[in-house]
Design goal:
The protein is of the alpha/beta class and 498 residues long. It is built from 17 helices and 20 strands. Strands 7, 8, 9, 10, 11, 14, 15, 16 and 18 form a nine-stranded mixed sheet that branches. Strands 1-6-5-2-4-3 form a six-stranded mixed sheet, with helices on one face. A three-stranded mixed sheet has the order 12-13-17.
């Protein structure tokens, strides 16, 4: 899509569709709306009187060919109560519009942001439009004409020329963030017969070739054995697909600067192993590699944004399948760190991958480590589909994640790691066990991970269930969400030494 920029009055915008955002009102006092009302022979006044359009959240109105306007149509998008409006209000409004035929049937459109001078608003609008309009179509042999988005030229405009530079910078940043999140969605939605650990590793290699300064190493099964990653190998041993361990590095900081290490769980399909999942839930498990997709795309975004820090992305990749060679409940395995683990459930496999990756992070002498994973079904009963639990060992790092959450509207909530949870994973036959049972499952899983954390600030983000949207929301259509990408990019963009 072509993106352009401009300034001037709304009536001067030569475009098929002119989009204007407005807060709620009970009388026409905004100069822009009064001009539009006059040009449309009182149409806005009529809509206000009838209650059809008052600028409330989710409301939309279309005015065709108002006198003196160069646009063929003007689309008004309601933001709601002025006191409650924030950047995400614009993101939501743009997201809903992105799937409306009144906009998508147009070859060109201009989003006119008036006198708004907040870069976060500019960024939110492009994010909302791109994220809301995304659809996975590569497996469709036919696409109905009615479903096609014809919009291929998008202009962002403001009242004053002095705002242009700020507008362009913020929109470009939003474009990068949104397209990176869309890449997470794409990867998460690809079926496992096309996205094996080997195929995912190939994606990482291709991204490293495309963006500088990014490098990528892929450890094959033999190299994983040499690294003594017994937990990763144990998960993979039931599948015909060999495991992979991807190491990506982005060198945007000064030489010698300690990196921030990102770790993403990469189970490309999770059947549950011998602890087989219910059949009605298993179809979602092609997305159990979403954590790895977030890490991969976050490094890509960091390179595009030229963030001034060093990053390492670690992505342990495996399929979890039942077979004669699969690990069994009651097996005892040895991790890279040397800790022995009694297997209680083969469906608690993600923490095994993360265990070896967390220990491997010590190779980079990190200043901080953040892991992100579709880790526990228990997360559904804590925050549902609305937010992600976060846990960790460093209050400052968790505070920064919360700040990034506020900026991106990717909501998080901190949970504790109490001694009760640590005690629940003690094993009678090994050092620890891989499941503490159903009670407090998210916290006990994190207590398990804690055993593999080095002497550095660490945070865990559990994106189980926020990785999939069941019904469809403003800028999140039904399906894979890509949750966590914008959260991490915002966090890294503001990064300062802890």
């Amino acid at each position: 899509m072509k993106i352009d920029f401009g300034y001037g009055r709304p009536s001067e915008c030569s475009t098929t569709a002119l989009v204007m955002f407005t807060t709620g009102y009970d009388k026409l006092s905004d100069k822009r709306l009064m001009e539009l009302d006059h040009a449309s022979n009182g149409t806005l006044s009529g809509l206000l009187e009838s209650g059809e359009f008052t600028g409330a959240v989710g409301e939309r109105a279309v005015l065709t060919k108002p006198a003196g306007y160069q646009a063929d149509r003007v689309i008004l998008a309601g933001l709601g109560d002025k006191k409650a409006v924030k950047p995400d209000s614009y993101r939501c409004a743009a997201g809903w519009l992105s799937r409306q035929r009144t906009l998508t049937c147009c070859p060109s459109a201009t989003f006119h942001l008036g006198a708004a001078n907040d870069p976060q608003v500019y960024q939110a609008v492009i994010e909302g439009y791109l994220l809301g309009s995304y659809r996975l179509l590569e497996y469709k042999t036919k696409v109905n004409d009615a479903d096609k988005n014809r919009l291929n030229e998008l202009t962002f405009a403001v009242d004053h020329k002095r705002l242009l530079k700020r507008l362009e910078k913020a929109v470009e940043r939003g474009r990068i963030a949104a397209e990176s999140q869309i890449n997470v969605r794409r990867l998460s939605a690809i079926p496992a017969n096309d996205l094996s650990p080997t195929a995912f590793a190939r994606e990482a290699t291709q991204i490293a070739k495309k963006y500088d300064p990014v490098t990528c190493r892929v450890l094959d099964k033999a190299a994983i054995k040499s690294e003594r990653m017994g937990a990763l190998l144990a998960v993979a041993q039931g599948s015909e697909q060999p495991p992979r361990f991807v190491v990506m590095e982005y060198s945007g900081g000064r030489s010698g600067q300690k990196p921030v290490v990102l770790i993403g769980k990469g189970v490309t399909f999770d059947s549950g192993g011998l602890s087989l999942k219910p059949s009605d839930k298993m179809i979602e498990m092609k997305g159990d590699m979403t954590g790895a997709a977030v890490v991969l795309s976050a490094i890509q975004a960091a390179a595009q944004l030229k963030l001034p820090l060093n990053l390492v992305g670690l992505m342990p990749l495996a399929e979890n399948m039942p077979s004669g060679s699969a690990i069994r409940p009651s097996d005892v395995i040895k991790t890279r760190k040397g800790i022995t683990v009694e297997i209680i459930s083969t469906d608690a496999e993600g923490r095994l991958l993360l265990a070896d990756a967390l220990d491997y992070a010590n190779e980079f002498d990190p200043q901080a480590v953040i892991d992100i994973a579709t880790l526990t079904g228990a997360a559904l009963y804590i925050l549902g589909y609305s937010g992600a639990p976060i846990l960790g060992n460093h209050a400052g790092l968790l505070d920064r994640i919360r700040v990034a959450s506020e900026a991106t509207a990717e909501r998080v909530w901190e949970l504790p790691i109490w001694d009760d949870f640590r005690n629940s994973i003690k094993s009678d036959v090994a050092d620890i066990k891989n499941s503490g049972g159903k009670t407090a499952g998210t916290s006990t899983a994190t207590a398990f991970l804690e055993n593999f954390v080095g002497d550095w600030p660490w945070a865990h983000i559990d994106i189980a269930y926020v990785d999939v949207e069941p019904t469809g929301r403003a800028y999140t259509p039904k399906g894979a969400t890509g949750f966590g990408l914008r959260l991490l990019v915002e966090l890294l963009s503001r990064w300062k030494k802890l």
